[in-house]
Amino acid sequence: DLLTRHKVLVADFLEQNYDTIFEDYEKLLQSENYVTKRQSLKLLGELILDRHNFAIMTKYISKPENLKLMMNLLRDKSPNIQFEAFHVFK
């Protein structure tokens, strides 16, 4: 809730701490736990599609390893994971 309500503050924080945050966030996206993976994808989609986080979105999608991760998540056995990955990917 904090990450989606205080958008300007969160955008500044994410920009300043991008490498540290997304290095750890990748572990959540690759989790074996379904709920962890799905909720992490859903939050990532909400964050990068928000106009306040345009710089974060640009940085995230410019990295080939993130693109590869999303493409692999599009092939997940769960349709819900595929759906959430699609929203990040688009």
Structural summary, described in words:
The chain is 80% helix and 0% strand. The chain is built from seven helices and no strands. Helix 4 runs parallel beside helix 7 and helix 6 runs antiparallel to helix 7. It has 90 residues and is mostly helical.
User: What is the number of E strands?
Assistant: 0
The CATH architecture classification is Alpha Horseshoe
User: What class, by secondary structure content?
Assistant: mainly alpha
> What number of structural domains do the residues give?
1
Helix share bin: over 70%
Mean pLDDT: 93
Q: Helix segment count?
A: 7
How big is the Rg?
A: 12 Å
What is the overall silhouette?
globular
> N- to C-terminal separation?
23 Å
Helix-strand topology string = HHHHHHH
Beta percentage is under 5%
Topology-level CATH name: Leucine-rich Repeat Variant
Major beta-sheet overview: none
CATH class group: Mainly Alpha
Uncertain ranges? none
